[in-house]
Amino acid sequence: MGSATPFYITTAISYPNGAPHIGHAYEAIATDAIARFERLDGRPVYFLTGTDEHGIKMVQTARNQNMTPAELADRNTPLFRAMAEALNISNDDFIRTREERHHRASQEMWRRLEANGDIYLGRYAGWYSVRDEAYYDEGELSVTEDGTKLSPQGTPVEWVEEETFFFRLSAYQDRLLAYYEANPEFILPLERRNEVLSFVKGGLRDLSISRTTFNWGVPVPGHPEHVMYVWVDALTNYITGVGFPDEADPKWKFWPANVHVIGKDILRFHAVYWPAFLMSAGVEPPRRVFAHGMVLNKGEKMSKSVGNVADPHDLVSTFGLDQLRYFLLREVAFGQDGSYSEEAIINRTNADLANDLGNLAQRSLSMIAKNCEGRVPTPGALTEEDRAILSVADGMYAKAREAMELQGLKKYLDAVWAVVAEANRYFASQEPWAKKKSDFARMETILYVTVEVVRQVAILAQPAMPESCAKLLDQLGLGEDQRSFSQLGESGRLASGLSLPPPAGVFPRYVSPEEQAKREG
Ligand code: ME8
After folding, report:
1. Cα–Cα distance between 194 and 509 in angstroms, integer?
2. How far is the C-alpha of 377 from the C-alpha of 480, rounded, in Å?
3. Residue 447 DSSP symbol
4. pLDDT digits (tens, 9 = 90+) for 48-95
5. b vs e for 128-138, b when ≥16 Cβ sit within 10 Å of the residue's Cβ?
6. Sign of CA pseudo-dihedral 17, 22, 23, 29
7. In the list 2, 54, 323, 439, which could disulfide-bond 319, CB 3.0-4.6 Å?
């Protein structure tokens, strides 16, 4: 079992400048699976998500739509909440950066940086990308054929010059490098860590942290003509969410966060600026920043102008929620970019879920319903094969736990499905259907062993597919208190004689509308 220490996990907070897309859904689902895994493993978990309502991007998008940024945020933030609900995300709170509690926390953060001597007034002249809400050095930019300057993320930059407050980021280079060295798993995956290390080793410039050319943001304490640079307040959301600055808040025990789950495009803010701000404010930095990859549409970057942006609600209604969740988590290693396509989702749905797990459960449970009066049979003496498959199932938790120490979502699911594959081989080679006449007691043992393996798979797969696994666990007659990871292995073995509900399929095959029409016609 994992330790019962608190576990605090967050997603990035999304800009509500449009509706959520599959990239947002991916991050929410992955973070949710990690949160659920830790909860099932007995840890008190706090899971925060929300929206980032400030910044010039919000101002410009709103202006283009003839609205105020507040109206734009009020229109779109509910769509992010609705997405979380539709995806069965188990967040404990949803923060909006316009909330009073967040303004209070951000202003306190500012005061602490100032009190520590890290803020000074100056003049900024340099490049800014509104799309990234980021400042870039000349040397980081590329130039297109028509002379447009682009950020390393490929977004256009503009020249800005204004009076601004600076944060003395340059003073934190050594402390950051020391922190990375002392915490080798602070930045995951490891490839990303090297990028950050070389960026910081290259030298850090002081960061412009206020703007005066618009007023949509958190006012700077004592200087209301300045609003905070959006990333200063956005990052602070992670401590607002657990009660900062009120350290007597019972939620404060969750700080430092165990994992900030974010996309690789915003790693620099999380792995460089954020720990530096916290060090300056005298607050412990987070324990880990995990940068996931981008979800691409058939290998292409999604963009509104190309028209290939997938709506998570459409994918859920076409393929099913748990099918989508499973696909996103299993298809690529967490941390790598991943391509989604309808064919790939259908393939996973039909091969891994309907065939491998669904059929195994359905076949064993139907045989029990038909031949064993719907009760979990009593196993006889175990053969070598029985013991081997049970031991593989009992060993699954340790592998999953090890993978999840580093948020290895795919690796954890690979470990579970390796057991599913093994169980299918066992079932096929033991031929319980043939034993029905020749050796009824042997058939009972095979069925017992098979459903016991299914039980453990269903418990361990809950973080990825909460709803479907709950149905499968219902089929196995297990109560709410029999579904946590403490029930894995030998201690939670299915009780013989337990009466099971009539079996019903949990993982349907995906049938395309055309196939469906053909069948019906
Ligand atoms: O960056 N695939 O907000 P955001 C995977 N407000 N992930 C993607 C993605 C894609 N195609 N597109 C975006 C922001 N994301 C800031 C964050 S946190 C203090 C402030 C991810 O709405 C992206 O990497 O642009 C980020 O982690 C999250 O979605 C929100 O992106």
Report:
1. 43
2. 22
3. H
4. 999 999 999 999 999 999 999 999 999 999 999 999 999 999 999 999
5. bbbbbbbbbee
6. positive
7. 323
Mutating to test ligand 1, I would choose from 52, 79, 261, 269 the residue with most ligand atoms within 8 A of its C-beta, which is 52
Give, for ligand 1, the residue of 239, 262, 339 to mutate: max count of ligand atoms closer than 8 Å to Cβ. Answer: 262
Q: What span, in angstroms and rounded, lies between the C-alpha atoms of 334 and 291?
A: 9
- How would you list the strands of the sheet with 134-136, edge to edge? 134-136, 119-129, 158-167, 207-208
Question: To which residue do tokens 């009660």 refer?
Answer: 243
> Which tokens is 334 given?
């967490």
The structure tokens listed for 307 are 């028209």
Tokens coding 61: 């998008």
Nearest CA to ligand 1 atom 29: 24
Instruction: Give the single-character DSSP code of 287.
Output: S
* pLDDT (tens digit per residue) in 255-284: 999 999 999 999 999 999 999 999 999 999
CA gap 281, 429 in Å, rounded: 63
Of 375, 361, 350, nearest to 427 by C-alpha is 361
Beta-carbon contacts of 107 under 8 Å, excluding residues fewer than 6 positions away, are 218, 219, 221
Q: Which atom of ligand 1 is nearest to 296's Cα?
A: 11
24 lines ligand 1 (CB under 6 A): yes
Report cis status (omega within 30 of 0) of the bond before 245: yes
Strand partners, 289: 187, 260
Evaluate if pTM is beyond 0.95.
yes
